[in-house]
């Protein structure tokens, strides 16, 4: 009887198979066999360790479970299940599938972009010790001890190295535990931590709140330390009007100097206290909580948004710069949190909008999480887990925040929705976070609010055709007027010899006036480096990158020539390599040269530069912004970074050094983007109580877009441009898919591109344009040919078109002709 019972038990035994997503660019998911003893532990969304290929181990995500074995191959066993509960939700898996389908990539590529590195360990993942963790070796297990000892000898080890060290096949569970204990980091993701804005506040010793004690103290100080007496008097004066007094405010008010304040602190008359503070200036009652009052127009707009949300899932808020859109966002977030739902607040440049992070934290406290590239991997995983558990009700983040595991998303706010930073260009998935957010909201049955002073034409078109709701905010908050825009001719001033270096007399006079008034200036030049081109005056030779088809840019700070595409550097030549001439000269100018020449023209001014080169190191960006707010900087020179998220009360003058570089660009979006950038940069001036001024330097003072910027006439720009878009078959009337074909041999590439374009024309006819080389036709030693496909919105199924396109690419990749090539589809590339 016992033997018979055992046979029945064996007959009823289930064999489960798991389809998993691997973090690789493969077109199909693999299926693995689940060990019987793990049947109860396996679940969709959990991570598992699997072997792929001969020996490599990967962390995969379980996508589905069944009892059907794969037909074409024998399923290998899952090696390990890493999680007690799923780390990816069913809605996320749907979202990944949609992204892969819409943007024509593989689900594994989406997974690779979506998950923090620490959640997808593989054989070649590199492990390092966490430098911020003090390791007590007495508390380590034997295997943890061996790994720590090895990492102290060799600072970086792969997962495979650690497996060999311990003499076992999989070490991922051990590494997972060590990661959770903060002992190790994933080396690819070791990056700067977000640093909050800090200020030193001064507080009077409570003993001197007694007027009698204060009266006794003053004669002593006036006799022995008159400057300290002045400082104390200044403190009492300030304290009558404000509760919180910063050290810098006290120094400025008293004129006594930092040493006098320091002496008062040493004598325990004053106390110093460092605190995290908001980057924005608030009234005192604002700092206590969400007590701000909306203006009449803001209240009307808020009610209009609520009404639109009853009819539409997506609403566009078109509000001029400094109109108080953030306050409206806060009210909507409050309502959503009260209803127990989650909110995602997307920003294009998270590093430049830290004041919004702190402002929201002031209102919502521990309910808010932040997710962006300046967090290290430990912090990203922590945010991931807190969103999954529902601990974070609000998430503020950059484009990658759309991948977080929301359970009940009620609202997505896409601030500055027009920004190109929302588009991921490399690697796949080449998604647009704004568009992805709209699909994500649909999966959660939630609403999307798009906000911008200069909306993208696609969003504005959708609003005008009633696909989206539409609301306008036309007044600046507090009734501050938009800045005066003054367009100045570079050509005329050059002819009259009134231009100094790259600064017209109008701009230079404006800068001097602002400095006299103790106000601040921002100068915008859309190119970093010192000079774009080094050229030989005799033979016109220009140094080029050895890997890319671009000229090298001279950077004075490093003394080298740099490639901005692949990072290649070389020493600056003194002699022309082509003709031997010593007559080499720099052509053009970037932010570095503007900063350099301005320091000669205005030696007393405190000048700083904000571009990619000056913001690479730890906290450098924060330091620049802190110094600007604390008025340690008079003039800030910068690239597009200065157009986004800066809000400072004393910036009254904006100078645009050369507007032609924005408007004379071979791109159908040049006018749209030129207007957006000019309007956004202009919006940095005169944001609180003072009307600002903008000086635009250009060779073409009659350019249509400049007049539209002066008149703040976005509608005129839109209608003019849309006529051209319709005529020449561009978005929003047509959809565009770009195919980039890459190869290291230009002749082979030419044949491949012609073959592929011919096959595509058999299906799509005149909708296929090209192939032709792009503006930069070689990057990292790969030559590039581009094919553009334009599909009308009506009369053709884009889903079917993509299916045919995939089949053509697959068929091409099966031919010998495709050897050595890379084909990269980019859906909605602009």
From TrEMBL:
Residues 306-473 form the Helicase ATP-binding domain. SMART domains: DEXDc, HELICc. Pfam families: DEAD (PF00270), Helicase_C (PF00271), PriA_3primeBD (PF17764), PriA_C (PF18074), Zn_ribbon_PriA (PF18319). GO terms for biological process: DNA recombination; DNA replication initiation; DNA replication, synthesis of primer; double-strand break repair. It catalyses: ATP + H2O = ADP + phosphate + H(+); Couples ATP hydrolysis with the unwinding of duplex DNA by translocating in the 3'-5' direction. Its cofactor is Zn(2+). Zn(2+) 2 binds at residues 545, 548, 563, 566. GO terms for molecular function: 3'-5' DNA helicase activity; ATP binding; ATP hydrolysis activity; DNA binding; zinc ion binding. Component of the replication restart primosome. HAMAP family: PriA (MF_00983). This is Replication restart protein PriA.
């Amino acid at each position: 009887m016992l033997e018979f019972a055992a046979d029945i038990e064996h007959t009823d035994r289930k064999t489960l198979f798991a389809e998993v997503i691997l973090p690789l660019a493969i077109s199909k998911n693999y299926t693995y066999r689940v060990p019987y003893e793990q049947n109860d532990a396996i679940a969709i969304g959990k991570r598992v360790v699997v072997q792929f290929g001969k020996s490599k181990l990967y962390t995969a995500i379980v996508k589905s479970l069944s009892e059907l074995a794969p037909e074409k191959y024998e399923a290998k066993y899952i090696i390990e299940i890493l999680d007690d509960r799923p780390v990816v939700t069913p809605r996320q898996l749907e979202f990944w599938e949609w992204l892969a389908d819409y943007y024509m990539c593989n689900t594994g590529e989406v997974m690779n972009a979506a998950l923090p590195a620490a959640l997808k360990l593989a054989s070649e993942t590199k492990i390092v010790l966490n430098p911020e963790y003090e390791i007590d070796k007495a508390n380590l297990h034997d295997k943890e001890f061996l790994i720590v000892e090895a990492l102290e000898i060799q600072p970086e080890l792969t997962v495979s190295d650690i497996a060999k060290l311990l003499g076992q096949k999989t070490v991922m569970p051990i590494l997972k535990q060590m990661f959770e204990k903060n002992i190790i980091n994933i080396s690819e993701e070791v990056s700067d931590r977000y640093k909050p804005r800090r200020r030193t506040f001064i507080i009077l010793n409570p003993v001197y709140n007694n007027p009698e004690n204060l009266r006794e103290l003053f004669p002593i100080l006036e006799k022995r330390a008159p400057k300290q007496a002045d400082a104390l008097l200044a403190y009492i004066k300030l304290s009558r009007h404000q509760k919180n007094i910063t050290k810098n405010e006290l120094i400025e008010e008293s004129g006594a100097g930092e040493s006098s304040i320091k002496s008062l602190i040493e004598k325990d008359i004053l106390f110093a206290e460092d605190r995290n503070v908001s980057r924005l200036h608030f009234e005192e009652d604002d700092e206590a909580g969400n007590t701000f009052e909306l203006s009449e127009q803001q209240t009307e707009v808020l009610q209009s948004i609520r009404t639109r949300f009853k009819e539409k899932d997506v609403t566009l808020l078109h509000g001029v710069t400094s109109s108080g859109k953030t306050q409206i966002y806060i009210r909507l977030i409050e309502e959503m949190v009260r209803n127990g739902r989650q909110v995602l607040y997307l920003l294009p440049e998270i590093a430049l909008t830290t004041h919004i992070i702190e402002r929201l934290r002031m209102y919502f406290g521990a309910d808010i999480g932040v997710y962006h590239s300046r967090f290290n991997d430990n912090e990203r995983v922590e945010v991931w887990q807190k969103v999954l558990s529902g601990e974070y009700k609000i998430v503020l983040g950059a484009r990658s925040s759309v991948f977080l595991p929301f359970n009940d998303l009620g609202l997505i706010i896409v601030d500055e929705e027009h920004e190109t930073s929302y588009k991921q260009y490399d690697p796949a998935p080449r998604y647009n976070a704004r568009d992805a957010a709209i699909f994500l909201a649909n999966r959660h049955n939630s609403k999307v609010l798009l906000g911008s002073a200069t909306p993208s034409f696609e969003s504005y078109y959708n609003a005008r055709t009633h696909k989206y709701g539409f609301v306008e905010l036309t007044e600046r908050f507090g009734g501050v007027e938009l800045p005066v825009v003054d367009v100045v001719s570079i050509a005329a001033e050059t002819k009259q010899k009134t231009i100094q270096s790259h600064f017209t007399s109008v701009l230079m006079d404006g800068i001097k006036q602002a400095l006299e008034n103790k106000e601040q200036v921002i100068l915008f030049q859309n190119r970093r480096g010192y000079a774009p081109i080094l050229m030989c005056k005799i033979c016109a030779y220009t140094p080029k990158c050895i890997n890319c088809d671009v000229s090298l840019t001279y950077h004075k700070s490093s003394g080298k020539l740099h490639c901005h595409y692949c990072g290649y550097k070389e020493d600056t030549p003194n002699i022309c390599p082509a003709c031997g001439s010593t007559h080499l000269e720099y052509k053009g100018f970037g932010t570095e040269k503007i900063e350099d020449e301005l320091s000669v023209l205005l030696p007393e001014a405190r000048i700083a530069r904000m571009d990619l080169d000056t913001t690479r190191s730890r906290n450098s960006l924060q330091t620049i912004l802190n110094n600007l707010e604390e008025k340690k900087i008079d003039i800030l020179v910068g690239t597009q970074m200065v157009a986004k998220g800066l809000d400072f009360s004393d910036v009254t003058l904006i100078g645009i050094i050369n507007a032609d570089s924005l408007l004379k660009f071979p791109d159908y979006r040049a006018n749209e983007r030129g207007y957006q950038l000019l309007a956004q940069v202009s919006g940095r001036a005169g944001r609180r109580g003072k009307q600002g001024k903008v000086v635009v330097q250009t060779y073409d003072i009659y350019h249509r877009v400049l007049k539209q910027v002066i008149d703040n006439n976005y509608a005129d720009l839109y209608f003019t441009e849309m006529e051209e878009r319709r005529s020449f078959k561009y978005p929003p009337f047509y959809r565009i898919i770009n195919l980039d074909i890459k190869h290291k041999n230009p002749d082979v590439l030419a044949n491949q591109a012609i073959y592929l374009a011919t096959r595509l024309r058999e299906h799509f006819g005149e909708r296929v344009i090209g192939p032709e080389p792009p503006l930069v036709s070689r990057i990292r030693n790969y030559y590039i040919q581009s094919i553009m496909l334009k599909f009308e919105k009506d009369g053709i199924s884009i889903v079917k078109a993509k299916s045919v396109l995939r089949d053509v690419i697959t068929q091409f990749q099966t031919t010998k002709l495709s050897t050595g090539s890379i084909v990269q589809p980019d859906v909605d590339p602009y």
